[in-house]
């Protein structure tokens, strides 16, 4: 789950929901680190490739946005609990890979996937909805997903986004570069924010992303910081 800082919470209160929604993708790299891994090895997600397209120009990596159709079943009795074909007005759904936006089983099981590929994931409870369950999902439930990848786009944490932000191509982001990018994005979405707001936001981003506190966000810090793997 993405946790908001107090600054982001303040932003959300200032802006109307549609603007917030647009900005959410951009700001999703502002999230808090999770603790170090557990001592007991986690059960893995089982990945089966049901269909692999002949041509594959690009494979998914962490930070990419993925558009998928999927069906979710309970392993126990094989019953369907969700289908984008049936429940989502028949529309596929977007998410960003590898940033805890979706269950861990998806973040782990949908890397290296091609457009047109179909996978079946068997997700143990610890990589799904855990001991608590959620909504229709009872506690301690193993889930099976059939997932079709429809489209890949550059996400906010992709190398492509990094390159766009890194104006002088030195493979690290200065505060000025991050500020320029935010300003451009805010303007593009029609949000009016004054300079001091940008500064606060930049400071907030650096406090979380600049792990070695050298005053720059390196490519590694940008793409991989706070990933659990
Ligand atoms: Ca730079
Ligand atoms: Ca750094």
Automatic annotation (TrEMBL):
InterPro entries the record matches: EF-hand-dom_pair, EF_Hand_1_Ca_BS, EF_hand_dom, PPIase_dom_sf, PPIase_FKBP, PPIase_FKBP_dom
EC number(s) reported in the record: 5.2.1.8
GO molecular-function term, one example from the UniProt record: isomerase activity
Reactions performed catalytically: [protein]-peptidylproline (omega=180) = [protein]-peptidylproline (omega=0)
Membrane-traversing stretches: 20-40
Enzyme class: isomerase
Pfam families hit by this protein: FKBP_C (PF00254)
Name listed for the protein in its UniProt record: peptidylprolyl isomerase
